[in-house]
Design a protein that fits this description.
Elements (H helix, E strand, L loop, with lengths): L1 E6 L17 E6 L5 E5 L9 H11 L4 E3 L5 H9 L3 E3 L6 H9 L22
Parallel strand pairs: 1-4, 4-5
Antiparallel strand pairs: 1-2, 2-3
């Protein structure tokens, strides 16, 4: 099964990024083989709609779940409508998060964990 972990770097030892829509990387992991694909987030600099765009991007990768620190309402709704489970409150490394998921220690979140503007760069 393929899952996605938001990450600050491009490998299993990277820290989980607390943001979904504007995370640094999406790490797509096959939980059976631990084969991974690290993808730089193409929406990190979006002026708006990063959560929706990132949700659509991840859903197109045919993942069954997203593990992240936080997710806003627009991204959550986009992922839910694509039948992708969302698990928030994740910290530590990507490898640790995948391990906990494989052991069944992580349960899907029932709603967004932050407001729609969380993760936006501050106005200068």
């Amino acid at each position: 099964m393929k899952i996605c972990v938001t990450s600050e770097g491009g490998n299993l030892d990277s820290k989980v990024d607390p943001r979904f829509g504007r995370c640094q990387y999406f790490i797509i992991v096959d939980t059976d083989t631990l084969a991974l694909e690290a993808i730089e987030n193409p929406n990190i600099e979006s002026m708006g709609g990063a959560g929706i765009q990132s949700g659509q991007f991840v859903a197109e990768k045919k993942v069954k779940a997203v593990l992240t620190g936080n997710v806003g309402p627009n991204a959550f709704q986009t992922l839910q409508s694509a039948a992708v489970d969302v698990v928030t409150g994740i910290s530590g490394t990507v490898k640790e998060a995948v391990g906990k998921y494989k052991k069944g220690e992580l349960k899907p979140t029932q709603g967004p964990s932050v407001s729609s503007k969380f993760g936006m760069p501050p106005n200068k």
